[in-house]
C-alpha cells in the first residue's frame, strides 16, 4: 500500500502531473490525431525520465567523482565558493541567510578551520544593497563563521563575484596579495570540476575539497528513484547546467 501511495503521489504533483496530463492527452487522441497523440506520449515519457532521481544520478555521478575528498587536506588558506542567500530574513546573528549549497560549504570551511587554523576566503556576491543593509554570500558567511568561533582576522571577503569565473579571478588577486600558494578549494562536489577549470585558468593551483554530495553511495535511499519527482528534475537541471558550464569554460566562453 505504501508503494501505491508513493506512485499516486508522484503522479498528482509536478512534474509527474505534467507527464500524466500529456500521457492522457496522447491516449485520448490516438484515434483521431495519431501524430499529435504520439508526440504527447513521447513528451510524457521524456518528462518522466528526466524527473527521476535515477536519471539525475546518472548525470551527477561523473561530476561528483571527478575529484575525491582528501583525507588529510593541506593548504595555506581555504577558499569557499558562494551560492544562494536571502536578503532581509531574520537570523540568529543578523539579517540575511545562507541556504542550500552555501550553508553546506560554509559549515565544511568552519570544520576545516578547526583542524588547520588557516585563513578562510569567502568568495561570492553579488553585493546586494537593500535599504541600509548590504548582502552577499561573503558578508553573511563572515558573520556566521564568527558566530561559529572563527576569528574575524582569519576571514577574508570577496563579495563581488557573480559566477564561477569571477570567483576564480577575484579570489586569485586576493590570494596573490596574501602570498597564498596552495589554497584548499571548497565547493559542492558536482561543481568542483568546473571550479577547478576556472581556477586553473586564473593560475591558481588549488587543492579540491568537494562537499555537499547529492548522489547516495548506497542504494538504501534510492528505492523510489524511478518515480518522477521535483527533486529529481532539480538535480537533472543542476547536472545539465554544470555540463554546459564545463563546455563553455573549455572553449573560452563565460561559464
Automatic annotation (TrEMBL):
Annotated InterPro entries: Cell_Envelope_Assoc, DUF218, Rossmann-like_a/b/a_fold
Task: Give GO BP annotations, semicolon-separated.
Answer: Gram-negative-bacterium-type cell wall biogenesis; peptidoglycan metabolic process
Q: Which GO terms describe its cellular component?
A: plasma membrane
Looking up CDD domains in the UniProt record yields: YdcF-like (cd06259)
The organism sits in which domain of life?
Bacteria
> Which chain regions cross the lipid bilayer?
12-30, 42-60
- Please name one Pfam family that this protein belongs to: DUF218
Q: Which N-terminal stretch is annotated as signal sequence?
A: none
Keyword Signal assigned to the entry: answer is no
Which parts of the sequence belong to the DUF218 domain?
76-245
Q: Which UniProt keywords apply?
A: Membrane, Transmembrane, Transmembrane helix
- Quote the protein name from its UniProt record: Uncharacterized SAM-binding protein YcdF, DUF218 family
Amino acid at each position: 500500500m505504501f508503494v501505491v501511495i508513493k506512485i499516486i503521489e508522484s503522479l498528482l504533483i509536478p512534474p509527474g502531473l505534467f507527464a500524466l496530463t500529456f500521457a492522457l492527452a496522447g491516449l485520448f487522441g490516438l484515434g483521431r490525431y495519431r501524430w499529435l497523440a504520439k508526440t504527447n506520449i513521447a513528451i510524457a515519457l521524456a518528462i518522466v525520465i528526466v524527473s527521476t532521481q535515477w536519471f539525475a544520478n546518472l548525470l551527477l555521478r561523473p561530476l561528483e567523482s571527478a575529484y575525491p575528498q582528501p583525507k588529510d587536506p593541506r593548504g595555506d588558506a581555504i577558499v569557499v565558493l558562494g551560492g544562494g542567500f536571502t536578503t532581509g530574513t531574520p537570523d540568529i546573528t543578523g539579517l540575511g541567510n545562507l541556504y542550500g549549497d552555501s550553508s553546506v560549504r560554509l559549515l565544511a570551511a568552519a570544520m576545516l578551520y578547526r583542524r588547520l587554523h588557516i585563513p578562510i576566503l569567502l568568495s561570492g556576491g553579488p553585493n546586494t544593497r537593500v535599504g541600509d543593509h548590504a548582502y552577499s554570500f561573503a558578508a553573511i558567511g563572515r558573520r556566521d563563521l564568527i558566530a561559529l568561533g572563527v576569528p574575524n582576522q582569519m576571514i577574508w571577503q570577496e563579495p563581488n563575484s557573480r559566477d564561477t569565473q569571477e570567483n576564480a579571478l577575484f579570489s586569485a588577486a586576493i590570494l596573490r596579495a596574501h602570498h597564498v600558494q596552495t589554497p584548499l578549494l571548497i565547493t559542492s562536489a558536482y561543481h568542483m570540476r568546473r571550479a577547478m577549470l576556472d581556477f586553473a585558468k586564473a593560475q591558481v593551483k588549488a587543492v579540491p575539497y568537494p562537499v555537499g554530495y547529492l548522489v547516495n553511495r548506497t542504494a538504501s535511499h534510492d528505492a523510489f528513484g524511478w518515480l518522477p519527482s521535483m527533486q529529481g528534475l532539480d538535480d537533472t537541471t543542476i547536472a545539465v547546467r554544470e555540463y554546459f558550464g564545463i563546455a563553455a569554460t573549455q572553449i573560452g566562453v563565460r561559464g
